[in-house]
Specification:
single chain, alpha/beta, five-stranded parallel sheet, two-stranded antiparallel sheet, 7 strands, CoA-binding domain protein, CoA-bd, NAD(P)-bd_dom_sf
């Protein structure tokens, strides 16, 4: 986890909902507030917190080092291929999301992988609960 948290700068949040009551929105906003370059990935057009929404990782024309997923676990099986194709080095499945097939494929491709953990909680722990 430490390796991911210390290496991330450009983060794609897959399933970043514009609904402020959703965890993906709260975590995405937290990452933006921490100064990370965040790319919301969501099926609808528009913006979230001034950031353009993209429909897939391949639509982002900027480097992505970290992909955080807020989708059902099965989705990680296909998303890992996109993670590999965009050259991301970190793949994070949020709390309650587990996919061992994606974990195995990430390991085979040298991608740092975390599942069933909240990136916001872990980042706060790493920074003693303080914003940057």
């Amino acid at each position: 986890m430490n390796k991911i948290l210390s290496s991330m700068k450009n983060i794609a949040v897959v399933g970043f909902s514009p609904d402020k009551s959703k965890d993906s929105n709260k975590v995405g906003k937290y990452l933006i507030d921490q100064g990370f370059n965040v790319y919301p990935i969501y099926p609808k057009d528009g913006q979230i917190y001034g950031k353009s929404i993209y429909k897939s990782l391949s639509d982002v024309n900027e480097p992505i080092d970290t992909v955080v997923m807020f989708r059902k676990g099965e989705f990680a099986t296909t998303l890992i291929d996109e993670v590999i194709s965009v050259g991301a080095i970190n793949f994070w499945l949020q709390l309650g999301i587990i996919n061992d097939d994606a974990k195995e494929k990430a390991a085979k491709n040298g991608i740092n992988f975390v599942q069933n953990a909240c990136i916001m909680v872990e980042h706060k722990k790493e920074n003693n609960g303080k914003f940057k």
